[in-house]
């Protein structure tokens, strides 16, 4: 039996706990850390999982999933360093932080796997992207894939691509939420009640995503199928292009990539 400890029970940490339980893990196989006692008690009551401190987690669990904010990583690593050993697998869910940071701060030979998840983990629809540190082996990657498949899809990439992944899929849901928000506002502007506009746009988004996922058809072809000559859609597309929406998205994703790189560089040396 592999015991898993989630270090940091924020939204992503809690979503992972919930997904692991839904995927068949026993509460006895799970631990978590949480610095706020009230929230720790609440999560234990809800999920039946024991709250522990970081050193206890390292001693009792084989897999340590680090799910704190990047700016909170240093004290966690300081607590881990004296007690972690090569029997542990460290799984980092911290945006922008390279495996080399963990390898530098922790004892030699600790296997580390870097993961970029996203918030649809909360509804079991995450896109999690994983990369191996220099001590992580095939069995470590397979174990992480098994764990994360309980909350969505998982793919592997070289770690050099993780900052770009962070910009695309890590931050990606926010871009969709932003567009949906704007489209709902447009519906209201055109005289449609908010609740009706929300229903129209959300279901359109779900349907479009399902078509992309299930048909495997290129998005250009799917868009062209909706775009009749001199019709309503082409007029809308012309306005999107005139206002530089495509260029704005490219620039936004590039800026997110740059910020991910900055987070990693802040912990160099």
Automatic annotation (TrEMBL):
Subcellular location: Cytoplasm
EC annotation from Swiss-Prot or TrEMBL: 1.5.1.2
Domain spans labelled Pyrroline-5-carboxylate reductase dimerisation: 159-263
SUPFAM superfamilies noted in UniProt: 6-phosphogluconate dehydrogenase C-terminal domain-like, NAD(P)-binding Rossmann-fold domains
Pathway: Amino-acid biosynthesis; L-proline biosynthesis; L-proline from L-glutamate 5-semialdehyde: step 1/1
Binding site for NADP(+): 67-70
Gene3D superfamilies reported for this sequence: NAD(P)-binding Rossmann-like Domain, ProC C-terminal domain-like
InterPro entries: 6-PGluconate_DH-like_C_sf (IPR008927), Acid_Pase_AS (IPR033379), NAD(P)-bd_dom_sf (IPR036291), P5C_Rdtase_cat_N (IPR028939), P5CR-like_CS (IPR053790), P5CR_dimer (IPR029036), Pyrroline-COOH_reductase (IPR000304)
Highest taxon listed in the record's lineage: Bacteria
The keyword Metal-binding is annotated on this UniProt entry: no
Main location: cytoplasm
GO molecular-function terms, A-Z: pyrroline-5-carboxylate reductase activity
Keyword entries, A-Z: Amino-acid biosynthesis, Cytoplasm, NADP, Oxidoreductase, Proline biosynthesis
Reactions catalysed: L-proline + NAD(+) = (S)-1-pyrroline-5-carboxylate + NADH + 2 H(+); L-proline + NADP(+) = (S)-1-pyrroline-5-carboxylate + NADPH + 2 H(+)
Domain Pyrroline-5-carboxylate reductase catalytic N-terminal: 3-96
One GO CC annotation: cytoplasm
Enzyme's top EC category: oxidoreductase
Function: Catalyzes the reduction of 1-pyrroline-5-carboxylate (PCA) to L-proline.
Listed NCBIfam families: proC
Name recorded for this polypeptide: Pyrroline-5-carboxylate reductase
Natural source organism: Kibdelosporangium phytohabitans
Gene that specifies this protein: proC
